[in-house]
Design goal:
Blueprint (H helix, E strand, L loop, with lengths): L1 H28 L3 E3 L6 H17 L10 H13 L4 H9 L8 H24 L5 E10 L2 E10 L2 E12 L2 E9 L2 E2 H15 L2 H17 L1
Parallel strand pairs: 1-2
Antiparallel strand pairs: 2-3, 3-4, 4-5, 5-6
Helix pairs in contact: 1-5, 1-6, 2-3, 4-5, 4-6, 5-7
Length: 217
């Protein structure tokens, strides 16, 4: 019975994580009608360019045809991948254990984590109907920036912050904070709990199974 209970609790944690990532990525990328920021900086403009590209794809009537579903998803993943630093997100989400992995294991973890995130938000993005996002401000310190926004959904305003790192003269997202909840911190907490009672190999296996389950839904 204890084993069953543990499995249920683990599934609940993964479900919450999938929901958080889905909401975060959905709100991150689907700005709808954007309200012009008071003082746009480089990081804000980078985010806005990504949002604009995603909107073009999901509003393309030709790409909405059922037979082009796979093509549409591939284009979305490409645009998102051009702004998301999945390697940095993976490293920060795994935490200290990242430094103990071989280069091969790191590459595998990044692929699995990326797959988990993309499978979580794919359908949500495609069913988006369009609301709005207000760019509040941008804070920059050396190579780091935080772009603060509010997502407008009817009468509700959801605070949403993007944390970015400057690499190669471009801004890359390494974390998303929805209403005060960090995507990276959320996953790091889940991964830490698994590693305290199990092995890294088990964590990787659970990542793979969870991603496959979301994809199959």
């Amino acid at each position: 019975m204890e084993t069953q209970g543990s499995a249920v609790r683990q599934e609940q944690r993964w479900s919450w994580g999938g929901l958080a990532s889905g909401i975060a990525c959905l709100l991150l990328l689907l700005g709808g009608v954007a309200v012009q920021p008071a003082a746009a900086g480089g990081a804000t403009e980078a985010m806005k360019s990504t949002i604009d590209e995603v909107l073009k794809i999901i509003q393309d009537k030709e790409l909405k045809q059922p037979e082009r579903t796979q093509e549409r998803r591939q284009r979305l993943e490409q645009v998102i991948g051009d702004r998301f630093d999945y390697s940095e997100m993976s490293k920060r989400s795994l935490g200290a254990p990242w430094n103990t992995l071989s280069d091969k294991d790191k590459q595998e973890f990044v692929v699995l984590f990326k797959t988990l995130l993309t499978n979580s938000y794919a359908e949500k993005i495609e069913t988006y109907s369009g609301e709005g996002v207000q760019y509040i401000n941008e804070r920059t310190e050396k190579d780091y920036a935080e772009v603060r926004t509010k997502v407008l959904t009817g009468k509700t305003e959801i605070p949403l912050d993007y944390r970015l790192l400057n690499k190669g003269n471009d801004w890359w997202v390494y974390d998303v904070v929805v209403d005060g909840v960090s995507l990276v911190n959320n996953y790091r907490g889940q991964f830490s709990k698994i590693l305290r009672s199990s092995t890294y190999a088990d964590l990787v296996d659970q990542l793979r199974k969870k991603s496959d389950k979301i994809k199959a839904q």
